[in-house]
Design a protein that fits this description.
globular; mainly alpha; 2 domains; 69% helix; Farnesyl Diphosphate Synthase
């Protein structure tokens, strides 16, 4: 699919609002970029929807709007005109679009200030957001074992979640089941274990599909940092230097070893 005005707008949105995924897309083969830009732009729009208003009813309506977009694509119906929804409907299969329902349902947690009920609910949130996004991207690009991709997506999701803790807490959310230093370390170890489990079965993901996993290139380093220095989570100080960040992405893009 060629880059029309809609896809260009999607790329600009990703560049502005999700710099890490933008870099990952630009490190991917040109043929993979339309799908990745459309999908990541959708993810930004859905992630923003719960925060669109302090009125929960309005926020619910915003999330439902994107849930309905997913249903239209999944059911093969005409898709409402939108600069993200339109290209997404042309690039995402109905089977994969069915994942959007679970993603939208998970995002409803962001609207309210209730904590996660238990570990199972937290895990489901990470899998339905990060895991589903990575699965839709990977499966759209090539052959892949869903369990492998979702394990990797879980680890990446935990790394991203830990980096988001200060902002979530500033918004009066309760993002962690156990906010102690030990609790942070335990969650980071779990994320790292899921990353390792995925990498042990790297052969289950084709080279083309593996392009989608480039987006998680920083996860291992971030999780290890959270284990080693858990106090960095509350400080909003997780992450690598700009040089290490870019060098790590280039290395993985060249070798294909996500």
């Amino acid at each position: 699919m060629r880059f029309d005005d809609d896809l260009t707008a999607c790329a600009e949105l990703v560049q502005k609002s999700d710099a890490n995924r933008f870099l990952a897309v630009m490190a991917a083969p040109v043929r993979a970029r339309p799908l990745l830009f459309a999908l990541y732009a959708f993810n930004i729009e859905l992630a923003r929807a719960p925060w669109a208003s302090q009125e929960s009813m309005i926020a619910e309506m915003r999330v439902q709007w994107w849930r309905d977009v997913g249903a239209e694509i999944a059911e093969g119906k005409p898709v409402r005109r939108h600069y993200v929804a339109t290209p997404l409907s042309k690039l995402l299969t109905p089977e994969l679009a069915a994942c959007i329902d679970g993603m939208a349902e998970a995002r409803r947690w962001d609207i309210y200030k209730d904590p996660f009920e238990d570990e199972a609910e937290f895990d489901r949130y990470i899998d339905r957001t990060s895991g589903s996004l990575m699965w839709m991207a990977a499966a759209s690009l090539g052959q892949a074992d869903e369990a492998v991709v979702r394990n990797f997506g879980y680890g990446v999701g935990v790394a991203n979640w830990l980096r988001a803790i200060p902002e979530l807490e500033a918004q009066k959310r309760i993002p962690l089941l156990d906010g102690t230093l030990e609790g942070v370390q335990s969650l980071a170890r779990k994320g790292l274990e899921r990353l390792s489990k995925a990498r042990e079965r790297r052969a289950g993901v084709s080279k083309d599909a593996g392009t989608a996993l480039l987006a998680g290139w920083q996860a291992k380093a971030v999780l290890k940092q959270a284990i080693r220095e858990p106090e960095r989570v509350a400080q909003g100080a997780l992450g690598q230097s700009e040089f290490r960040r870019r060098a790590g992405l280039m290395r993985r893009a060249v070798t294909g070893r996500w």
